[in-house]
Design goal:
By secondary structure, the protein is α+β, with helices and mostly antiparallel strands. The protein contains 17 helices and 23 strands. The strands form seven sheets. It has a seven-stranded mixed sheet. Strands 3-2-1-5-14-13 form a six-stranded mixed sheet. The chain starts with a strand and ends in a 7-residue tail after the last helix.
Length: 511
C-alpha cells in the first residue's frame, strides 16, 4: 500500500489541505476553511488570531484524514505552508501573548528605520543580512512590540512564524526552518545563521527567544502521540514546513534554475530558484533561502487581482465578462496605461503610491479599455520584478502561473507577451499546499535513509496543463516593450510626488 502525505497551506484568508498519494502524486482530497482579519482603525495594521489558524488546521486536517478512510494509517507525513513574516509571540508556557502581526502589516515602518539606523545604515544592513529591513518582515514587528506594548514584550519567551506555530501545535517542538526564517530580517541568508547584530539591535536579551534553526531535510518532529491517537494516525508521522513562497516553489517545480513562478493573486510574487545567493545592489529583489537547500530570489507586488477586481466591480461584471471586454481591445490598450499602486507598491518601491491612469481620452475612456489596461498594468508591474531578476543573471525558460488571474486565457497571453517568455499553468492548482505535501514526502524519504532528489520528485509529480500554455507574439512584444519603458519611467517620476502628496495634503479649511 502506497504512503499518503498531507499538505496544509495556512494563508491570510483561509487554510487549505490536500491529501496526496505518494505513489501517483494524485490529489485524493481537498478541503478548506476560511477566516478573516481583526478589524482595527490603526493605519497599516493587519492582524489575525492564531487560534483561527489552529481551528482551520484542525478542521481541514480532520476532513482529509476522514477522506483517507481505511488508509489513514498509511499517512506518513504532514507538510505545513504558512504566510511568511508574521510574528507569533509566545509566553513561557507556550501561550500566544497577542494577535499576530501579518506580512501585509505596514504599521512598523518607523521601527524599520530605527533598526536600519542601529545597524549602521542601509548598506551595512545589506552587508549583514543580505536584505534590507522592510515593514513586512518580522524584525520590525518585534521592536514594535517592545516599544508600543512593553507589558507584552516583557512576557515574550519565544518568537515564532505562522507555520512554526502550527508545527508547534502538531509536534510540541519549537523550531524554525531556514527558508521561512530568512524572511525575518534576523538571519544572514548567505550563511543561514542568526545575525547577532540584528538580533541585538532589537534587544540584548532576544537571542535565547529565537528557536533553533533547522535544515530543510530534517523534520520539525512527529505528530504528538495523543493527537495521533485521536486522529487515527500512526505514531511516526513526520511534520515539516516552510513559508508559502518556499512551498509554492516546490509545488510548481521551481527547484532548479530556469523555471520561474508568478503568482497572480490579490498581491503578486515572481520568483526563481538559484544555486547561489544573489544580493540585489538596488535592494528591490529579496534573497531568501528556499526549502530545499538552495535560494529563492523574489519580487513582490502589492496589486494584482486587487486592481482588476476594482474594475470588475465598478462595471458589475463576472470574471468572464471582464476577460471578454479585455479581449476586444488591442495590445497596449490604445495608449491607456494603469499604474495600479492602489495599496502603495513594494516593487518598484513606491510605498505611498496610488492608482494612476495615463492616456485617458475619448477613445480609451470606456470599460473595455479599462479592463485590458488593468490586466496589462499589473503584469507590467510583475515584469518590472522579472527584469530585475534578469539583471541578476537569471534567465527564465518557462514561467509557471498560479493564482486566480492565471485562469484567464486573455490574461495568460498578455503575460506571455509582456514577460517575453512562455507561460503555463499547473495541472495541480493547489500551489503551496501541494508543495507542502511533496516536501513532507521528500523529508520522509530522508528519514527512511532513501533520499529522493527534490528535482526528480517534482519532475515526477508536478505537471503542466498544456492547454493553458501561451507563447510570446513578437509583434505584440514590441508594443509592450514600449509600455514597460513608460510604466517604469512614470513609476519613478511620480514616486516623490506620491510621498509629497501624502505629507502635504490636509483637510480643507474653506467653508
Amino acid at each position: 500500500m502506497s504512503r499518503l502525505f498531507i499538505g496544509i497551506d495556512s494563508g491570510t484568508q483561509s487554510t487549505k489541505a490536500v491529501l496526496v498519494d505518494g505513489e501517483s502524486g494524485e490529489i485524493l482530497a481537498r478541503r478548506s476553511a476560511a477566516y478573516g482579519l481583526i478589524e482595527t482603525d490603526v493605519p497599516g495594521s493587519k492582524e489575525q488570531n492564531p487560534a483561527d489558524w489552529v481551528s482551520a488546521l484542525n478542521t481541514t486536517l480532520e476532513q482529509v484524514i476522514e477522506a483517507a478512510g481505511a488508509r489513514r494509517r498509511a499517512i506518513a507525513g504532514i507538510g505545513i505552508s504558512g504566510q511568511q513574516h508574521g510574528f507569533v509571540p509566545l509566553d513561557a508556557k507556550g501561550r500566544v501573548i497577542r494577535p499576530a502581526k501579518l506580512w501585509c502589516d505596514t504599521s512598523t515602518s518607523a521601527q524599520c528605520q530605527t533598526l536600519t539606523s542601529r545597524l549602521g545604515g542601509l548598506d551595512r544592513t545589506i552587508e549583514l543580512l543580505g536584505n534590507p529591513i522592510l515593514p513586512g518582515y518580522t524584525a520590525s514587528k518585534i521592536l514594535w512590540l517592545k516599544e508600543l506594548e512593553p507589558e507584552n514584550f516583557a512576557k515574550l519567551s519565544t518568537v515564532l512564524l505562522p507555520h512554526d506555530y502550527l508545527v508547534y501545535m502538531l509536534t510540541g517542538n519549537l523550531v524554525m526552518e531556514w527558508g521561512d526564517a530568512s524572511g525575518t530580517a534576523l538571519m544572514d541568508v548567505r550563511t543561514r545563521t542568526w545575525c547577532r547584530e540584528a538580533v541585538a539591535a532589537i534587544d540584548a536579551a532576544l537571542a535565547p527567544k529565537l528557536p533553533p534553526l533547522a535544515y530543510s531535510t530534517r523534520p520539525a518532529g512527529v505528530v504528538l502521540r495523543d493527537l495521533a491517537a485521536r486522529l487515527g494516525l500512526s505514531t511516526d508521522v513526520v511534520v515539516t514546513g516552510s513559508g508559502d513562497n518556499m512551498m509554492g516553489a516546490v509545488g510548481t517545480g521551481n527547484v532548479r534554475e530556469g523555471l520561474v513562478t508568478a503568482s497572480f493573486g490579490t498581491s503578486g510574487t515572481i520568483y526563481a530558484c538559484a544555486e547561489q545567493p544573489a544580493i540585489d545592489p538596488r535592494r528591490e529583489i529579496a534573497t531568501f533561502c528556499d526549502a530545499t537547500g538552495r535560494w529563492l530570489l523574489l519580487a513582490c507586488t502589492m496589486n494584482v487581482t486587487g486592481a482588476t477586481e476594482m474594475v470588475r466591480n465598478l462595471f458589475g461584471w463576472t470574471h468572464d465578462q471582464l476577460a471578454d471586454a479585455a479581449a476586444v481591445v488591442p495590445p497596449g490598450s490604445d495608449g491607456l496605461l494603469l499604474l495600479p499602486f492602489f495599496e502603495g507598491e513594494r516593487t518598484p518601491n513606491v510605498p505611498d503610491g496610488t492608482g494612476v491612469w495615463i492616456g485617458v481620452r475619448d477613445k480609451t475612456f470606456d470599460a473595455p479599455h479599462m479592463a485590458r489596461a488593468a490586466m496589462e498594468g499589473v503584469t507590467l508591474g510583475l515584469n518590472y520584478g522579472l527584469n530585475r531578476l534578469r539583471e541578476l543573471k537569471l534567465t527564465p525558460t518557462e514561467i509557471r502561473l498560479t493564482g486566480g488571474g492565471a485562469h484567464s486565457a486573455v490574461w495568460r497571453q498578455i503575460a506571455a507577451d509582456i514577460f517575453n517568455c512562455p507561460v503555463v499553468c499547473l495541472s495541480q492548482d493547489e500551489g503551496a499546499a501541494f508543495g507542502a505535501a511533496l516536501h513532507a514526502m521528500w523529508v520522509w524519504s530522508h528519514e527512511r535513509d532513501q533520499p529522493l532528489p527534490i528535482d526528480r520528485l517534482t519532475e515526477r509529480f508536478v505537471t503542466t496543463d498544456e492547454s493553458t500554455r501561451a507563447v510570446p507574439n513578437a509583434a505584440t512584444r514590441r508594443v509592450y516593450r514600449e509600455a514597460q519603458v513608460l510604466f517604469d519611467t512614470a513609476a519613478y517620476d511620480l514616486g516623490p510626488a506620491f510621498s509629497h502628496h501624502r505629507r502635504t495634503i490636509a483637510p480643507s479649511t474653506q467653508g
